[in-house]
Automatic annotation (TrEMBL):
Species, as recorded: Callipepla squamata (Scaled quail)
Signal sequence extent: 1-18
SMART domains with a match to the protein in the record: CY
The protein's name in its UniProt record: Cystatin fetuin-B-type domain-containing protein
Alphabetical list of InterPro entries matching this protein: Cystatin_dom, Cystatin_Fetuin_B, Cystatin_sf, Kininogen_Fetuin_HRG, Prot_inh_fetuin_CS
């Protein structure tokens, strides 16, 4: 009886292999390359660049270290990497389109830190690097660390409070008065705000501005009444401003500095990677970007999907790993249903080889990388997590640690 079952089982397996498409012959076990491997370092660099390029709000993220990596070699050559990256924010806004390596990381006690999960397909022989999906969860450094390191430093506050909106308006008025731009600019949103007592209350803001249709040749009493230019014509900018009040001298000092960015032409998904690569290759600090792909056969790559979620500051002294777990528990230790977010971390690219029909009666093969659900098991390599790009005691204690093996 056991022999019969074995024969039937073996026959079923052989038939299954014979009927499966080539992609199913891929190894089911994911590899665990070292976190300091050159290919892994390159995949992490490109993935983070594409994450930053895909975003339209917030600050450019910088790599702190590679926390975990799994690799899935592909039948069509190349590999899909499943990356977990420890990241921190920088002083560059995503509108600047700067490379993360060219941006200054914020001081640790003012950082927003966290992790990004990313699935990226890399095929060096065909000069392709495509980010499939990503999900980043970030959080500001807890206030107790700020008070412990710098008790007199500015304290972060809610950017939408009226006093910070007023600070941004006064800073922008100074910019509009002194700049050589042909049109007035208006405040689009305030992205960061803080307060400090100097010789009186001092308010600091970072904010995004947009070009309006009002010419500077005509005096304007209220900029808010100016209509913004259309996106394909309007310049945008990122500003840092402050308003410092002196209680002793009864004076007010206003400062502002802005970077203005040229209008971005809309780019299709097919041309997005190539455009990004051309801009990166023209950078003074060339980072071995993949050149425009020249495909010997068509390759189907799904649209990049992802999101960045920022959690509120925590008053507890806990690591980021424990924090994300605590989001799923109530005080009575019962689980809390997960909160809805703007995107779901799920692979959208096709699995295996497919057929695409252009015209009735004609077909041509379309091959795509096999994208698996993001693996729950972390890297098995002892080299992961990798070395930090910069050593910082605050961030090191807050970012996740690799669970102990049991």
């Amino acid at each position: 009886m056991l022999l019969l079952i074995s024969v039937l089982f073996g026959t079923q397996v052989l038939c299954s292999w014979a009927a499966s498409p080539p992609a199913s012959e891929l190894p089911s076990t994911l590899l665990s390359p070292t976190c300091d491997d050159a290919a892994v370092q390159e995949a992490a660099d490109v993935a983070l660049r594409q994450i930053n390029a895909d975003r339209t709000e917030g600050y450019i993220l910088s790599l702190y270290r590679i926390f975990s990596v799994r690799e899935h070699p592909q039948e069509i050559t190349g590999s899909v990497f499943y990356l977990i990256l420890d990241v921190v924010d920088t002083e560059c806004h995503v509108l600047s389109k700067k490379l993360w390596k060219n941006c200054r990381v914020r001081p640790a006690h003012t950082s927003v830190y966290g992790q990004c999960k990313a699935i990226i397909y890399v095929n060096r022989s065909r000069k392709i690097a495509h980010l499939n999906t990503y999900e980043c969860i970030l959080q500001p450094v807890p206030p107790r660390y700020i008070w412990g390191v710098c008790p007199d430093c500015p304290v972060d506050a809610c950017p939408t409070e009226p006093k910070y909106l007023e600070t941004a308006a006064k800073s922008l008025a100074k910019f509009n008065e002194e700049s050589e731009q042909t049109h007035y600019f208006s405040v689009l949103n305030v992205t960061r705000a803080s307060m400090q007592w100097v010789i009186g209350p001092a308010h600091f803001v970072e904010f995004v501005i947009q070009e309006t249709s009002c010419s500077k040749r005509d005096p304007i009493a209220d900029i808010s009444k100016c209509e913004p230019l259309s996106p394909e014509l309007a310049h945008k900018g990122f500003c840092k401003g402050s308003v410092v009040n002196s209680d002793m001298e009864h004076k007010q000092s206003v400062t502002v500095s802005c970077e203005i960015y040229s209008p971005q032409d809309p780019v299709s998904e097919e041309g997005k990677l190539q455009t990004n690569q051309r801009s990166e290759e023209s950078s003074q600090n060339h980072q071995h970007a993949f050149p425009a792909e020249t495909n010997p056969f068509p390759l189907h790559l799904g649209k990049t999907v992802g999101c960045v979620k920022i959690l509120p500051p925590s008053t507890e002294d806990i690591s980021f790993h424990k924090l994300t777990e605590s989001q799923n528990e109530r005080e009575d230790s019962k689980p809390v249903p997960p909160k809805a977010i703007d995107c779901l971390f799920s692979p959208l690219a096709p699995a295996g080889e497919q057929t695409h029909v252009d015209k009735p009666g004609s077909t041509k093969p379309v091959t795509g990388p096999v994208i698996l659900p993001f693996p729950e098991e972390l890297s098995l390599s002892d080299s992961c997590p990798g070395e930090a790009k910069q050593i910082d005691s605050i961030l090191h204690s807050l970012l996740t640690r690799k669970p102990a093996k049991v």
